[in-house]
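Deviations from the work plan: none for this task. Representative record:
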Amino acid sequence: MTTSARTRAAVLATTVVNALSRRFGAGSGTVAGGHAGLALDPRLLEHLASNRRIALVSGTNGKTTTTRLLAVAVQGSLGRPATNATGSNMPTGHVTALAGAPPGAPAVLEVDEGYLPGLVTSLSPEVVVLLNLSRDQLDRTNEVRMVASKWRAALAGASRTTVVANADDPLVVWAASSAPHPYWVGAGLEWLADAVGCPACEGRITFAGSSGRSGPGGRGGPGGRAGAGLWRCECGFGRPSLDVRLEDDDVVLADGRRVRLELALPGRFNRSNAAMAAAGAAALGVPWQESLPRIALVEEVAGRFAVVEVGGCTARMMLAKNPAGWRELLDLVCPGDTPLVVGINARIADGRDPSWLWDVPFERLRGRMVVATGERCRDLSVRLRYAEVAHRTVRDPVAAVRAAHIGAGGALGRSGGDRAPGPAPDPVPRPVSVDFIGNYTAFSDLMARACARRDAPDAREGSPAWT
Amino acid sequence: MDLRIVVVHPDLLGTYGDGGNGVVLLQRARWRGIEAELVDAPSDHALPGGDLYCLGGGEDAAQTASAHRLREDGTLAASVARGVPVLAVCAGYQTLGRSFAAADGRPLPGLGLLDVVTVKGAGPRPVGEILAEPCDPGLPVLTGFENHGGHTARGVDAAPLARVLSGVGNGDGTEGAITGKVIGTYLHGPVLARNPALADLLISWVTGAPLAPLDDAEEQALREERIAAVRVRRQLRRAGRS
C-alpha cells in the first residue's frame, strides 16, 4: 500500500470505529478510532497535520478551556478549526479531531503535558501555548521538573514555532526560554509551591509583589499566589521582559494599549486563560480586537460552569484537578453562601493518591455548608474535620447534591456532621442553587447523571460537550 | 504547656501533601486544650527551635538541597540529640539516614539521624496503597500510600517501624525505621491523618503524659475503608493465581 492509501484507510478506520463506539455507547467516540487509525498508519497524525496551520495548548491547568477559547478566537479569520474539544488530549484524540476536518482547515489541539515534546518535534506547530506547570497526579506522571526539562529540550529545536508562554510561571519560562521564538505573556500564577525552587540552578526564586502567602492550612507557607510580579533567582534566571500582560481586568499590549476583558466565564484563572488564548491567536495573525470579543462570549467549556439539573436541584458544575485548580475555585466560591458539594474520586484518571487534599486550603470554607461526596469522601471528610469545616458525608453525588439543597433550608451538620445518613427524603424544590466542585471523574460522573437545563448558557454554544 | 510544631522546608519537601501531618498534630493537641502552634520553616531561613519536627516528601533535586541546608544548619541534629521527636516521610525519611541516592544514583550524605542507607530501587517504582503492622504493639495497623524509588536498608541501630502486610516499604519486608524519638516512614496519606494513633504517640512524647481520647469517627471510617480496599485487592490477586 502506498503511504497515501494507507493514510486514507487509516482515516476511514478512525471515523468508522469512532462512530461505532458512539453508536454502541462503548466509549467517548474519540479514543478507539484513534487507536484503530494509528494501528494502520503509525504516522497518521503527521500526515493529517501536514498542510495545516497548527496551534498546540498545554499546561497543568486550563488546557481544555484555553483550547476552546483559542479555537473560538481564530474561527472568524482562519475558518472553523479542527479541535479536540472534549479534552481527549493524547494522540488518539488528536487523530480523531483531524480525521474529520476538511483538508487545509487549521487545528487547535489540547495536548497532555507528557505528549507535548513528541508533538512539537513531529508536527512543527506554528504556535505552542504554555499555560503553567504544577503538581498533578504524582502517582503516575513524572515529577513536574522533569516535565519542564523535556519541554525545554524539545522547544530548543522548534525553529518554526512561536512559543506563547506564561512569564509568571518560572517552570514554564525555564521550558520556553530555550525556544528560538518565545512570546511572553504576564498571565499571573496562583500556585507558587512548585515554583520556588529555581529550575536553572536549584537555588531559590523570590517573588516580588506576591500577595497573601497563605499556604496549606491557611498558614504562612509556599503555595501562596503571585499577581503579575517580578521574580528572579540569585543565579540571574528571572522573569523575561513581557510582550503583553494581564493587569486586573485589562490586557495591556506591547504598545501600551489596554483592552478590557469582560468575560462570561468567571474567575481570575479564566482571565488568564483568555489572555493566553488571545496571545496564541495573535501569534496566528488574528488581531486582539477581533479575538477578545469572541472569547468574551464563551460561557461554558466542556461542562465547566454549566448549570444543570441534578436530582431535582439546580447545580453549578465546577472542575478542579489539583491544588492549583482548587485554590482558584475556592477563591471563586468563597465570597458566596451557596451550599457547596465537594466530590473526590481517586481513579487512575484522577491520580490514585488523594494526599493532595492537604495542599488545598479548605479552611477557607469555615462557616459554609459543605457536603463531602465521591468514592474518596472519607479522605475529604477527615481533611474537612481538621480544617474545622462543618460537613456531612454522603457518598452518592446525586444524593449529596440533594442533601445540600435540602440543608440550605434548615440546619445542616455540625463538625463531623451526619456520619451515616439515612435515605434522603424527597426534596422540596427551592430556588436554591448548589455549587458542585469535583475532581476529574467525580465531575464527569455527575455530569453524565445530570440533565442540561434548557435555559443553560451552553444553548448558545451548541450541544453540551459532555454527552 | 506550649507545643511548637515545625514543618521543615515545606518549599522543598512539600510535594505529597505531607504538610498535613503538621496540621493533624496541631489540631489534635489543640482539641485537648494543649497550647500549640504550627511553624513553616522555609529552606532560606535558619531552622527555628521546636518541640516536634515534621519532614515531608519531595523531588530529587529538592531533597538534595534540603539535606545540604539541614546539615549546614545543624539545628535538627542538635534537637534530636536533646530528645526532640521527629517524623520524616519519604524523601525526608531518606534524608535523615546515613546516605541517600541522588537523581543519577550516586550516594549523597544524609544527616545520620537514622541508621539507614537508601539506594535506587532495582524494580518498578512502588506506587500504591500500603498496609503495615507496627512493631510497637501499642499502635494499630498503619495505612498509607507509598510512592518512592528508594530501597532502604537498616543498620543495627535502627529498628523497623512496622512489618509490611501489603505493599513494599523499605524493600525487605519492613517499613520505615525508628530510633529513640525519630521516626522515618514511606507512608503518605498524610500518614498522621490516616493513623491518628501515631500522631498521638508523637504528641505524648512531647507532653510526657497520656492523652485524653478524641472522637475519631471520621478517621476510623477512612481507616476501615482503606484497609478493606487493600484486603479486597489481595484476595482478588490470590483468587486470580489459584
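The longest strand of chain B covers residues 127-134.
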